[in-house]
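Design a sequence for this backbone.
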């Protein structure tokens, strides 16, 4: 049970959480978690963890609250109540499914009846099945990483996990980055980043909306077959201190990409590798001679296989640094 509690604490930012009953001035709160599958059918016998925040100072490690654990019934429901701040949260898990996290904020006025409103709302939490996880190349490029050169294209080898020679050990330029920068100060700068590809049918496309935001496995299981674009660009800056801007959404759930494409004499795709980027590509040139860059990618090594369900126990990269490891599917 300890690992479940630890995961819950992380999701709620509970630091030094106490599970003892504490008399506090917070109003009473009650909530029902209803666990369902991707088919909207109720899931029974799932382990539900519900945490209520009860004050304290998180900055000095004195967060307080109560955590409850229970099993969803035949209708997929589990109910818990306690005194609470306006926001609370928890997690749900079951063997054969990916864990899901949730947070909730009460919105109604509590001063008249001394309880948070709405009283006992039902939160629908989706558990996604573990279907066909496979070995993949998976790596996180931490933000302290730098693009080797500015104003010139430079390739990155996804299978080697490094920049191409002469800047690293890579041999195939799967991703080709180019950064343009102007940095006068921290409040007066512009940085433009482009990502292009080596082959005609290579490309990238955004994932779009995802229905299972709380799941540790958020993105679709299968990469699209078509609609890959040959270039991705993003710009950030604050020109003369007039306000920060960014041309691509910072909260993008992710991207699918296709690389190492081979076509036949008729222009038909016969070979390609598919992968995904979880979240967005972050970059910043203000504290670099070129630009810092960060992103997390997964690459399926099997040609023409569009399965994007990664098995965290079978990363094809070995001996990664701790800052490069990501254990989520």
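Sequence:
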């Amino acid at each position: 049970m300890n690992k479940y509690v630890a995961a819950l604490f992380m999701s709620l930012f509970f630091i030094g959480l106490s599970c003892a009953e504490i008399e506090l001035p917070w109003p009473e709160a009650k909530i029902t978690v209803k666990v369902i599958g991707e088919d909207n059918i109720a899931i029974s016998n799932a382990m539900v963890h519900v945490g209520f925040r009860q004050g304290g100072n998180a900055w000095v490690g004195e967060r307080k609250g109560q955590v409850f654990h229970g099993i969803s019934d035949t209708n997929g429901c589990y109910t818990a109540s306690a005194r609470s701040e306006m926001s609370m949260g928890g997690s749900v898990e079951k063997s054969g499914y990916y864990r899901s996290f949730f947070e909730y904020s009460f919105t109604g006025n509590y001063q008249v009846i001394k309880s948070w409103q709405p009283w006992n709302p039902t939160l629908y939490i989706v558990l996604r099945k573990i279907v066909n996880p496979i070995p993949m190349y998976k790596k996180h490029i931490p933000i302290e990483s730098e693009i080797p050169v500015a104003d010139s294209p430079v390739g990155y080898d996804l299978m080697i996990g490094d920049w191409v020679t002469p800047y690293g050990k890579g041999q195939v330029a799967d991703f080709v980055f180019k950064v343009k920068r102007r940095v006068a100060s921290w409040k007066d700068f512009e940085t433009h980043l482009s990502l292009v590809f080596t082959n005609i049918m290579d490309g990238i496309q955004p994932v779009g909306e995802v229905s299972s935001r709380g799941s540790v496995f958020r993105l679709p299981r299968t990469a699209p077959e078509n609609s890959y674009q040959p270039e991705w660009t993003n710009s950030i800056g604050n020109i003369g201190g007039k306000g920060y801007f960014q041309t691509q959404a910072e909260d993008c759930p992710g991207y699918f990409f296709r690389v190492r494409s081979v076509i036949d004499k008729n222009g038909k795709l016969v070979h390609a590798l598919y992968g995904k980027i979880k979240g967005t590509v972050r970059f910043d040139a203000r504290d670099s001679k070129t630009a810092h860059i960060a992103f997390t990618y997964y690459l399926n090594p099997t040609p023409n296989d569009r399965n994007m369900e990664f098995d965290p126990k079978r990363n094809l990269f070995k001996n990664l640094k701790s800052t490069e490891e990501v254990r989520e599917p």
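Residues 1-6, 8-23 have pLDDT under 50 and may be disordered.
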